Amino acid sequence: MAARVSDERLRYARRRLPGAFVRSPRERLLRAASWSAFLAFTAFCLWWIDADPMRIWDGLGKLGWMFTFMFPPSDGGRLADLLYAMLETLSMAFLGTLIAFLFAIPLGFLGAKNVIPGWVFHIGLRRLFDGLRGIDALIWALVFVNAVGLGPFAGILAIAVSDTGTLSKLFAEAIENVDPRPIEGTRSAGAGRVQAMRFAVLPQVFPVMISQALYFFESNTRSATILGVVGAGGIGLELSDRIRVMNWDEVCFIILLILVTVAAIDVVSREIRMRVIDRRNERS
Amino acid sequence: MTSLIEPSRGETPVEAFERHRAALVAARRRMTLVGGGLFAVAFVVSTIVGEFSPLNLAAGLPKIAAYVDGTLPVLRGDHLMTDLGEWYWGIDRWLRLLFDTIVMGFVATLMGVIGAFALCFPASRNLMPTTWIYFVTRRLMELARAVPELVYALIFVFAFGLGPLAGVLAIGLHTMGALGKLFSEVNENVEPGPLDGVRAAGGSWLETMRFGVVPQVLPNFASYALLRFEINVRAASVIGLVGAGGIGEELYFVVRQFEYVDISAIVLLILLTVSAIDISCERLRHGLIGDAAVRAV
After folding, report:
1. B150:A229 CB<8 A
2. Does A10 touch chain B (CB under 8 A)?
């Protein structure tokens, strides 16, 4: 226990610094009002989405019942098919990221303010990037499945298109933040604009680009697992099929397979990223 | 390179240097070869498994162009308003669904924030002396965020029925895991001074959290929560594809019914809503934690 403060001293402190003990009525009113407004809005939202406690209770019961069917997880005797579907998912993530990466390098340079001066072009291109990445990969997948048919090809395109926007934006920002001195150095040694990009800018940003691309490969592995839900191939298709026919033990197996694969990809990709970044640190 | 280059017997320093350099270059070349080889294998395998070929691409691209072209509305200069009205014939319904989507994003974020707030203190190494509690809460949060929202939604639609409730619970659960991790990382970087102060004054563990940690971390928590709200509105806009409510349901419906022009109308609406929320949240976040910190996140 801490030493007690005498009542007299406490009274004195209360008189001198009233704000330290109680909030002013005005402040208290304001707080009460904003909390009630917040709670009222939350209550309205809960009512709006029909979050009836009975319904939630029933749902939880059903969920528990489902859960008992999930164990032990089973591959339903089709382990090879599931593994192939997982490989398909990984292929989608890999090719989708690769294509996005290849498109994003030139687009990133074009979108950087210090490469192409003039705001009209810059703003226009940046809005295009925003548009591409503003639409979720799942929506792109839905569109591409309808355009080119079911299968992983639609998934690859969906990842490629939505990530081209994001990666281009990130690359453009990386290029805008480069150290300008190497550019001046190469320029003063007689290099042209393109040569300055190649020998002064690219060496600075390339490790960053590789590292970001790997990071996106990781996150795309996650998103590729669900693209199959709308028909774009891979493990997602298997998963949604199993849920539709309520084979919960197989659902559990597939979810575990996804978790293990994603964790493995994370580890590998983090390892490679560390190496890429290390190499850059060594050089500088 | 700091490694010392020792000239061996009968070798000039220059020769030693050249030998060392040759070894380094060879090592580098080996790395490049191995890396390139692995990349080539991954590329070949994934093109085969992913059914990706120039032929496919040549056949697919015109189809995509035709499809996208088909979704674009006819807008003529002389009766623009009529055309716009026709394009957005379902605007009342769609605005209501968009409102649904935002409400879903809000409730899911709130749910996630409450869950993450409860879990993040025991899940911070510097705040939780009991190892097993730390371990269990960490694993719980990992499990919550490792499963994609859409997978939760697929399952929850079965348990809670079609509609926004399943979507909210799915996004909320995932958010709890994702925010819990970020929150506990913030907690692990707090100044230990105030904690010691509260403890020295006789505060319990809960009081230490409330008066020592929370005042330090609240602005960062709020900023992460807003960031998550942006992400969750995006998620809510697509989670309807599996029947879990929001504008995504309508989008799935019109794509299925080949209502081409409606597709572009709805996608544009989603895009506008999401960007409007992004921009306003970013403003708020700048106000909360300052410009430099926002960029660092």
Report:
1. yes
2. no
Q: Is A46 on the interface with B (CB under 8 A)?
A: yes
Q: Which pLDDT does position A91 carry in this prediction?
A: 92
User: What does the buried/exposed string (b/e) look like for B200-239 if buried means 16 or more CB atoms within 10 Å of the residue's CB?
Assistant: eeebeeeebbeebbeebbebbbbbbbbbbbbbbbbbbbbb
- The b/e string for B56-71 (b: 16+ C-beta within 10 A; e otherwise) is beeebeeebeebeeeb
The pLDDT tens digits for B89-100 are: 878 888 898 998
Task: Please name the residue of chain A whose CA is at the shortest distance from the CA of residue B67.
Answer: A147
Tokens coding B10: 């009968």
**HEC per residue, chain B:** CCCCCCCCCCCCHHHHHHHHHHHHHHHHHHHHHHHHHHHHHHHHHHHHHCCCCHHHHHHHHHHHHHHHHHHCCCCCCCCHHHHHHHHCCCHHHHHHHHHHHHHHHHHHHHHHHHHHHHHHCCCCCCCCCCHHHHHHHHHHHHHHHHCCHHHHHHHHHHHHCCCHHHHHHHHHHHHHHHHHHHHHHHHHCCCHHHHHHHHHCCCCHHHHHHHHHHHHHHHHHHHHHHHHHHHHHHHHHHHHHHCCCCHHHHHHHHHHCCCHHHHHHHHHHHHHHHHHHHHHHHHHHHHHHCHHHHHHC
- Looking at the predicted structure, is the pLDDT value of residue A267 above 60? yes
Best residue of B158, B272, B278 to probe chain A, by most A CBs closer than 10 Å: B158
* pTM score of the predicted model: 0.82
Question: What are the CA-CA distances from residue B164 to residues A226, B91, B168, B240, B255 (Å)?
Answer: 19, 20, 6, 8, 20
Residue A2: strand, helix, or coil? coil
Mean pLDDT of A198-213: 86
Domain ranges of chain B: 13-64, 86-296
CATH architecture of B86-296: Orthogonal Bundle (1.10)
Burial B75-110 (b: 16+ CB within 10 A, else e): eeeeeeeeeeeebbebeeebeebbebbbbbbbbbbb
Quick one: pLDDT at residue A20? Answer: 76
Tokens linked to B135: 């371990």
Q: Per residue in A127-148, is it b (16+ CB within 10 Å) or e — as a string?
A: ebbbebbbbbbbbbbbbbbbbb
User: Least CB-CB distance to A153: which of B50, B147, B201?
Assistant: B50
* Smallest CA–CA distance from A227 into chain B, residue: B150
* Chain B positions in Cβ-Cβ contact with residue A262 (cut-off 8 Å): 146
Task: Say what the ipTM of the complex is.
Answer: 0.80
Structure-token pair, residue A139: 């929506």
Which A-chain residues 238-277 have CB contacts (< 8 A) with chain B? 239-240, 243, 246, 251, 255, 258-259, 262-263
